[in-house]
Specification:
The complex is a heterodimer of chains A (261) and B (318). By secondary structure, chain A is α+β, with helices and mostly antiparallel strands. Helix content of chain A is 52%, strand content 8%. Chain B has 318 residues and is mainly alpha-helical. The chains are: A alpha+beta (261), B mainly alpha (318).
């Protein structure tokens, strides 16, 4: 497993038993801080809801025993809620949601083991019990510094639990499907390309698709300009095919090209 | 193969794998049938192959990024650790936790020494100057002792026992977990917590002795004290195990030593949690009650003895 020189520092590599290297994007300081912030906001909201509910119950309580019950319940509830945020919330969610808390889910982050496996209850416990030393309050500076400096973005708790936090880009296959020829869907059993294929490099292919996906959102003038410039770049590749002499305007020509790649 | 053709040919398989993973993630392993798993694994292998192909031919594309994530997700579901079942959890308490504590008995002894040093210093501080007590005890406790009453009578007549027990055990578990996590600060936080709690104990005992409350204090502490202090000392020991891995990693890298020792140290801390919940309930329900002193002493001694017997004798056969 030799990291290629082109691998950026924010990626982590792991070798699978299937003999492929998996490259995953390590979450950066910013998104991890935002996730914590989101979790704390949620905790704060729950706190105020519990507080408000018990307050309302005890305020309108006519009977004395209900008042006492309400205030007792409120005190127990508060103690448990505070304790829960400090020691249980993060660990419990990461355990049952496979490495995600509500905040992490919102920002597409996930905790995994350094070898790519899902986290177990001891991992989750180890990385979250250490939060008073490297996340909460002023100690958060230490955690930020460690995420920033360590090569896999690990704070102390991550090192102890051998975990890391990755960023998952949501998979959206539909970006590849908008220019399928209407008559043959992607799943149909026909020969996929009846037309002679035109060879684009992966980068050119990606560029073409990015343009075709984004064109609806572009102002008309930019849209036409980009189409013309792409047309100039990609036209030589169509040499010797029916597309070379095609009278289509650049944009339609590009869509036609996408169908034949 | 052109990227377009590659996507068109294999996309049904990727999407099938994706939906199967979604089902599996929401349903859990136990409820999935054999044929489902076989298909999942076949799809996973094929997609891993696609990933290898894409890595060679389509570097730097979104397609490659998606395949990486899809394979990671599948790998995550296939190579998963055992889920924690009730029997596995009981197994931890039956063997792994006592074993971890026995393996690190030296750290627990050091933790006890730091705690007792704190106690000794607390005793001698009040002996030397009574005002030392104001450093660590709240004014309400001090005033009640000065007037010759136990503060517990006031507190427990106002706060009902269920509330008090919740406060007591949540704060004690917090102290225990913090003493463990404090190991990451090279043990500084652990030492501070142990010392502070020991110091407080020393101060209270000396102060009560000076105001003729020693008997009352002893009666209050007898039921839960041994269990509570044992648990705090053990979790302090867990913190020292972590600190020792950082300070003295031996032949390992510091981070490897930390990962290895942390895993058994956290079990020590987990073992303290039930003891602290028990102690918290006794402290709130029984200790302030008018039960005879003999019963409180017997209860405290029995629980302390059972706890240590459990730690020192259970799970030896492996």
């Amino acid at each position: 497993m030799s990291p290629s020189p082109s691998a950026p520092a924010w990626e982590t590599r792991m070798e699978l038993p299937e003999e492929v290297d998996l490259q995953l994007e390590v979450a950066n300081v910013g998104s991890r801080s935002l996730a914590i912030l989101a979790d704390l906001t949620l905790c704060g909201l729950i706190f105020f809801v519990v507080y408000g509910l018990t307050f309302l119950i005890t305020r309108d309580a006519a009977a004395d025993w209900l008042l006492r019950l309400g205030s007792n319940a409120m005190e127990i509830g508060m103690a448990l809620v505070i304790f829960g945020f400090q020691w249980v919330y993060f660990g419990l969610f990461e355990w049952i949601w496979n490495g995600q808390t509500p905040g992490k889910r919102m920002l597409h982050l996930r905790v995994i083991k350094v070898d790519g496996a899902p986290v177990s209850w001891t991992d989750v416990l180890l990385r979250n019990v250490s939060r008073p030393i490297d996340t909460f309050g002023p100690m958060g500076l230490l955690g930020l510094l460690m995420i920033f400096v360590s090569c896999k973005g690990q704070r102390l708790g991550d090192m102890m639990a051998q975990t890391l936090v990755i960023h998952e880009t949501p998979i959206d296959w539909s970006i590849f499907d908008q220019f399928e020829p209407a008559e043959s869907g992607p799943i149909s059993g026909k020969a996929p390309v009846a037309l002679p294929a035109i060879r684009l490099s992966a980068a050119q292919w990606e560029l073409l698709h990015q343009y075709l996906n984004r064109r609806e959102q572009l102002p008309a003038e930019v849209r036409a300009r980009l189409a013309a410039s792409l047309y100039e770049k990609l036209k030589p590749l169509a040499r010797g095919t029916a597309l070379e002499l095609s009278p289509l305007v650049p944009e339609a020509w590009l869509a036609e090209l996408a169908r034949r790649t | 193969m052109t990227p377009g053709l590659f996507v068109r040919k294999n996309r049904p398989r990727w999407q099938r794998l994706e939906t199967m993973l979604g089902t599996m993630e929401s349903r859990g392993l136990r409820k999935t049938e054999r044929s489902f798993l076989q298909e999942l694994i076949a799809l996973y292998r094929a997609t891993a192959g696609d990933l290898a192909f894409a890595q060679t031919h389509y570097r730097g594309t979104t397609l490659l990024l998606f395949l990486h994530q899809l394979v990671a997700r599948a790998h995550n579901q296939i190579y998963r650790p055992h889920r924690l079942s009730l029997s596995a959890a009981l197994g931890y308490f039956r063997s792994q936790i006592p074993q971890a504590i026995r393996a690190h008995l030296q750290a627990v002894i050091w933790s006890a020494i730091v705690f007792l040093l704190g106690t000794a210093l607390g005793l001698s501080a009040v002996q030397f100057d009574e005002r030392a007590a104001t450093v660590i005890l709240p004014a309400s406790v001090l005033n009640s002792v000065y007037s010759g009453h136990m503060w517990t009578g006031n507190i427990f007549s106002i706060v009902p026992a269920p509330v008090a027990s919740t406060f007591i055990f949540t704060s004690n578990i917090s102290i225990a977990l913090l003493a463990f996590a404090g190991g990451l600060s090279f043990g500084l936080v652990t030492v501070w917590i142990l010392f502070q709690n020991g110091f407080m104990l020393g101060v209270i005992f000396k102060l009560c002795a000076d105001y003729g409350l020693l008997g009352a204090l002893f009666e209050f502490v007898a039921g839960h004290g041994l269990l509570e202090i044992s648990a705090i000392v053990i979790s302090g020991g867990a913190g020292f195990v972590v600190a020792n891995a950082l300070l003295n990693p031996g032949p390992y890298l510091r981070r490897d030593a930390l990962a290895q020792q942390g895993r058994s140290a956290v079990l020590m801390a987990v073992g303290c949690v039930p003891a602290l919940v028990t102690a918290g309930c006794i402290e709130a329900f029984i200790s302030p009650s008018h039960a005879p002193v003999g019963i409180k002493v017997a209860l405290g001694l029995t629980l302390g003895l059972v706890f240590w017997l459990y730690l020192l004798a259970t799970g030896r056969r492996e």
